[in-house]
Amino acid sequence: MPKSILCVLLASLLGAGSEGAAFAQQAGAAPPRQAPGAMPQPAPITEKLERPHAGHPLSFENTRHIQELIRAGTLYLSLQDALALAIENNLDVELERYSLEGARSETMLAKGGGATRGLDYGIYEAPPGVGGPFSPLAVSPAAGSATSGTAVPTNALEAGVLGEPLDNFSIAGTVPFSSGTAIPGYDPMLSGLLNFSHQTTPEVFYQSYLTNNLVNNSATANAAITQGFGTGATASVSFDNSHNSLNALNVGFNPYNVSSLGLTVTQPLMRGFGLNLNRRYIRIAANEQRIASYLFENQLNYTVYGVIRLYTDFVALFEDVRVKEETVKAAEKLLADTQAQVNEGTLAPVELTRASAEVYSTRQDLINSRGLFEEQEAILRRVLTRDEDEQLRATHIMPTDTLDIPAKDDVRPIQDLIVEAMAGRPDINHSRLQVENSLINLEGSRNATRPEIDLVGTLQNNGLAGPYTGFQPSQMFQGGYGSALAQVLAHDYPTYAIGLQLTVPLRNRVAEANLARDEVLTKQTQVRYKQLQNLVALQIEDALIAMRRARSSYEAATEARKFQQESLEAEQAKFEVGASTAFFVIQYESLLAQARSTEVAAKSSWLKARAALQFATGELLRDNGVSLDAAKRGSMK
Fold first, then answer.
1. Would the pLDDT of 167 be above 70?
2. What is the set of domains in the chain, with CATH numbers?
3. What is the DSSP string of 374-431?
């Protein structure tokens, strides 16, 4: 029923005077605008109830951006391009986009008086890749080399030594809160009844109706509108009409019309009373809108962090392939030089055997490195795309960035980093809102333990009309349905009633048990929030340690590579004049190859450790130029 009609009906019940007109004007006025940050108000009854927008259509096609980067069958990929493709195409990020759209329906649900359905707190990490957290494969020793390889670790959290990684970021636990006090429905509900009945009743006493076969024909047309309000009140306006006719000969009104217009208001005074209580789901829904945004940002952080790791390992493997190729060339040159000296008789034939074995060992190393590079390429391609067709699967990726690290680390004090993380990390922010929602839920559980005292008021106007057939006709009730309706609107025959309904449970163990359990759940939520804060601080400290360790490893690897290069050059000079053998040259070539691979891995480890620090402090998106709004739209252009 339109709001204007409801206002007229309420005004007619209150009378045609200034009070009723003022009420009608106030009820029909537009709701006042709320100040920014004010508590959300329930939807007015004129709000057009439409299904929330379904958002962008479902698509598994890659964006055109990836085709723009392909030239001559090769995908030339920088880190920024990789991040853009992942944000646009990665299905983990796409899942969270739909979660954003789903969260918008929570507000409409709460404004209608329904309980929120909750959010999906699942976050998905990118695959670790062939390098893994310690990148051992990029620094694997050459087959048959004189020394073993050196692993350069990055982030201890990725290795699982700081605790199990999370995939569900809800700190509320798996046990749901109780529903608490019921909330009235804020959406108006219109009901109606049309009915016709024909009733034949045998009459024993003829004198009662001057007939032994009483026939009663009645038609009923009723309508009612019911709505709940933020105070917990429920108002119902009913408009009842009936037309009755009898075959009796001694009835004064026959046929006759009865009409009534009534208003009944029930206002809880204890259980179910209060704006904050009855709008708690609206407040929770508003928080869930913000939580959904933080969850999207959290998923974006994990995806961006995963792509940085994958791309960094991909570049490291690419550079390691070059190292292995140069090592093969050096081994082949040594074999040719050894062959020449054996032919001249300056070296024993056994040196030729050693040089030949070294060639095949380095080739085997090159095959392994290329295989790891191709595996990493396949994993990276999958993360950056929604679907792979045959053309894309046959496209090779060529990294355009190199592993460059600054000469000096520029890191702020750890306390400043922790404070910044507590204010800016999305998982901290949405966990704080979860704690707030648990406290809001607790309001409903606590209110359910109160007695139920309701103030009930009724106001009704009545009307009666029909052709009078008695000996004393009354002009007041003469007429048809129009006369009865006029009496109702004129407020001629009002009925008033007001009273209290009291329900006091002698034992309320269900509500008290629910309250006790919900208090425990709230405390557990607060404990988990503190655990998360402690874990964030540990992540920051671990990332700083990893950066220092990777820096030291890089500096040591660089110096080792320089000295191994000098040692090899000196040994090669001795070999050229016949003062050394192929065995010693092979040994120094293996040492140099291992030192170069270790240097590559150390640079990769520092870059991943820096990304881990950016992730831990909540600066990852900003430092890598990722726009959150563009990511929500799904287009980085």
1. no
2. 1-30 (no CATH), 65-169+282-441+516-633 (1.20.1600.10), 189-228+233-271+452-503 (no CATH)
3. HHHHHHHHHHH-S---HHHHTPEEEE-------SS-----HHHHHHHHHHH-HHHHHH
